[in-house]
Amino acid sequence: MMRNAFKMKLHKGFEAEYKRRHDEIWPELAAELQKAGISDYSIFLDEETLTLFAVQKLSDNNSADNLPNTEIVKKWWAYMKDIMDSNPDNSPVCKPLREVFHID
């Protein structure tokens, strides 16, 4: 099992909407993430900078790299693109973060 962390950027004024959409995450999206080997997935918001910090656990045999090719993920990206920084393909602009410390 390995941890994966990344950051994204929320548009100003959409803090409550971002939380609402994730509180109502589509069951088929949650199932797809689990099927890909993602677990213990959390997203935190820095309210001063509107930076979203995500951390997730990936199983050793995960298929997370294939998620961008699934229809449900593409549909979620299209749903979220209006409230966060997004790429031309609607995927969120994600910056990977390097782990520098961990206590287990």
UniProtKB/TrEMBL annotation:
GO terms for molecular function: L-rhamnose mutarotase activity. Pfam families: rhaM. It comes from the Bacteria. GO terms for biological process: rhamnose catabolic process. One of its GO terms (cellular component) is cytoplasm. The keyword Nucleotidyltransferase does not apply. Keywords: Carbohydrate metabolism, Cytoplasm, Isomerase, Rhamnose metabolism. Its EC number is 5.1.3.32. SUPFAM superfamilies: Dimeric alpha+beta barrel (SSF54909). HAMAP family: L_rham_rotase. This is L-rhamnose mutarotase. It comes from Candidatus Moduliflexus flocculans. The lineage of its organism: Bacteria, Candidatus Moduliflexota, Candidatus Moduliflexia, Candidatus Moduliflexales, Candidatus Moduliflexaceae.
